[in-house]
Every structure is written in C-alpha cells, then in structure tokens.
Structure prediction request, 96 residues.
Amino acid sequence: MRRPRLIRLIVLALLALAGCGGAGRPPTAPPEAPATSRVGAGPAPRTSDGPLAPSVRAAVDRLARSVAVGQLDGDAVQQIATSRDPRLAWVLSDAL
Prediction:
C-alpha cells in the first residue's frame, strides 16, 4: 500500500523538478536569510538555482525508474549523493 504512494510522490517530485529549469528567467540574487537565532542548527547549505548537471538528472531518472519496480539503483544513489546538491536530499530521502 505504501509503495504506490511513494511512486506517486517521486513522480510528482520529478515533474516539479523538471518544471523548475528556470529557462528564460533573468538570474536573481537569493533572498537574504532573516537575522534570527537558530539554536542547534548550522547555517543553511548554499544551493544553486540553476539546472542539474545532465548526468545527475539522468541519475535521478534512473533512481525513479528503479524505485518504481522495487529495485534501488545503488549507482544512481551514489551519483546523486556525490553531486552534493542539497536540493536532491529529499529525493534520496524519499527513495530510501
């Protein structure tokens, strides 16, 4: 029962990721973080708002297909993890 829900979530996440390419938009500076006290948390990771590298995007696609058939593609997980792109942390979290 949980597997179809997971598959739907991954597919929706990948569709959202595909729609966030940002083509045609002028680059903008990231908003400044509010000056608040964050107890127990380090600084937020720096993220890119650009597109994923083609090899990483292909790894995300392979991972989604492998999860859909119940076989986790370890090479895809490794490639996504070594990209060190914090935007993909939730993809890995959902897949695992």
Q: What stands out?
A: The two ends are 16 Å apart (CA to CA). The longest helix spans residues 2-18. Helices lie at 2-18, 54-68, 74-82, 89-95. The chain is about 50% helix and 0% strand.
